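User: Could you check the structure of this?
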Amino acid sequence: MDKIEYRAVIKYLLLKGNTPTKIKHELDSVYGNSAPSFTTVKFWAAEFKRGRKSLGDDERSQRPKTATTDDNIAKVHQMVLDDRRIKVREIAEVMNISKERVCYILNQDLGMRKLSAPWVPRLLTCSNEHFQRYVGAV
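Assistant: Sure, the predicted structure tokens are below.
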């Protein structure tokens, strides 16, 4: 059962005058193990008592879904080509993205890893597509 449907049942039973404990007992008897927890029932009962009308979740302010865009990948790539000894922290500060996202771009998107100090392609073989990009740059 969808969580919005549970919330509708909680609201209905609350409007009938039931307490959160009685609502939880009723939900358990009907839905068994799939019923929401008592904490959830108590939270939604309090929300509805305060006058909440909506059954859905409130909007949340979030970060952008991802910082891994083609533009960011190209900028990170150019920064590494300009200075092979650049630190992940420096890239993150310049790009204004997290260090974890910079590491993801370097490792997954560009196929690089840290060897000693400079960033290099993971496999130095002619068949590696990433190596083809660096042949002219090295």
